[in-house]
Fold this protein.
Amino acid sequence: KAGVTQTPRYLIKTRGQQVTLSCSPISGHRSVSWYQQTPGQGLQFLFEYFSETQRNKGNFPGRFSGRQFSNSRSEMNVSTLELGDSALYLCASSAAGLSYNEQFFGPGTRLTVL
Amino acid sequence: AQTVTQSQPEMSVQEAETVTLSCTYDTSESDYYLFWYKQPPSRQMILVIRQEAYKQQNATENRFSVNFQKAAKSFSLKISDSQLGDAAMYFCAYRSTGTSGSRLTFGEGTQLTVNP
C-alpha cells in the first residue's frame, strides 16, 4: 500500500503570494490532518478534514484554509504569504479519524517565503 | 487545553547503551492516548510507540518501552541497546479520545544523538 504523499516537496514563494499544497492519503483513509512545523513554534495543528468536512481547526489565521475532495485528497491554501509562514507542512492520514486510529505522516512540503 | 512538555532539548547515548527521554503532560481528561514519534533527518514522522491511558500496563515495542505514570502525568521513553539508526528528533504527543478527532498535541522534541 502506498504511503501518504505530499506535493510539491519544496516550494519557494515571495511575500504576498498564495500557495496551495496537496496531500494524498493512504488508500481507504478518510481523515487528513495538517500540521505546521517551525523551529520556533514546533509542531502545531492546523486542521483536520474528514469526509470532505472540516472537523477540527487549530489557532491559525483565516489566511490558512483547506479542503478535502471526494477521493479524500486534501489541499491546504495559504494566502498573502508572510515570512513567518516558512515552515515544513506535514499531513497525516488515518482510517476513520477516530482517536485509536493510527496516523501516518507524509514526507512534508518545505515552504520558503522570501 | 492540553499541553505536552519535553524538558530535554538534546540527549546523547553511546551505541548499545540505554537512554530515557522524558515527557510530561497536562490534561483534565481521564481517557486519552500518548505517543512517541521519531523524526529522522528525512523529516518523515514515524510512530514509535503508543499508550492508552486506561491501560495500566506499560507499552513495549522491541527495544522501545515506556514508563507511564498517569497520576504524575509522566510518559517517558526508554530505548535499550541504542543503535546508530535511532538518532533522530523524538516527539511526545497527546491525543484526546473526545471530539477532537485526530488532533495531536506535540511536545517541543528531544534531539537524540547516538555515538559510535
About this structure: The interface with chain A takes residues 32-33, 37, 42-47, 50, 52, 91, 95-98, 100-109 of chain B (CB under 8 Å). Chain B is about 0% helix and 50% strand. The longest strand of chain B covers residues 88-96.
